[in-house]
Amino acid sequence: MDRPELRALYDLLIKWGFYEHGVKRSNEKEELVLVKKIGVYEQNKDIIWNFPNINNQKKMILPIMPQYHTNLFPDSKLNTENEVDFMENVAHRYALQKVYITWSYENNVAPGDILLFYRMGDKWPKKYSSVLTSIGVVDKIIDSFVDENDFLKQCQNRSVFTIEELKSFWRSHRTNLKILKFVYAKSLNNRLNLEYLWDNGIVPAPNGPRPFTTITEEQFKMILKDSNTELNI
Question: Phi/psi zone of residue 227: left (φ > 0), alpha (ψ -120 to 50 degrees), beta?
Fold first, then answer.
């Protein structure tokens, strides 16, 4: 493995839980074969190493404003959105590791928790245009920063916000600012709207979910079933 790009790829795959399975030989050439176990979660390894296997921890709903939603989750674009608006190759759109920034005082989230992202509606009535779209898994929570530069560095290229927006967050919310680093798992196959959440007692009408709204295991299973979505839990 004498080429630096191959070494970088190898190190990346090892980080994501692949391991050496053997060597493939053909036409006098050798290729290293890496494989990954699916369906087994190893508790002594981190979130990234185990992915797409997911540990069965708390489940919560996390709202995201519509102007940021599809920039962060292009695979969860709604049919009413213009695909041309999201064709630019921007790092945070297609990275598995992403960043969610919050200054909510809710403090019940932990690494390994499963997030159901809820796109807040931008059309009336909101009970139809507000929908659950995506699933992620919390990797890290960072709530202590040396200074503004440290905060910006932690966001890297995984945030939908501009540098100026991030600096504004720092100026206004530095005392309770949090970065959630999470791994994007998948989009829901069928979108479930706010009316569905009301009708099934997941969120009390006439409100939408608040940040880090915890749901029960039964409610989560019902959402997966009704959205026709499967997870490696």
Answer: alpha
Q: How far apart, in whole angstroms, are the C-alpha atoms of residue 216 and residue 202?
A: 9
- CA dist 213 → 124, 194, 222 (Å): 23, 14, 16
Q: For residues 155 and 95, is the Cβ–Cβ distance under 8 A?
A: no
Q: What are the pLDDT digits (tens) for 60-117?
A: 999 999 888 888 887 655 444 444 343 444 544 557 888 999 998 877 899 999 999 9
> Amino acid letter at 136?
G
Strands 178-193, 97-102: parallel, antiparallel or unpaired by DSSP?
antiparallel
Distances (CA, A) of 205 to 98, 115, 137: 31, 21, 27
Contacts of 216 (CB under 8 A, 6+ apart): 59
Token readout for 159 is 């945030």
Residue with tokens 């050798």: 30
CB 189, CB 227: distance < 8 Å: yes
Q: How far is CA 39 from CA 46, 52, 54, 111, 226, in A?
A: 15, 9, 9, 19, 22
User: pTM value?
Assistant: 0.85
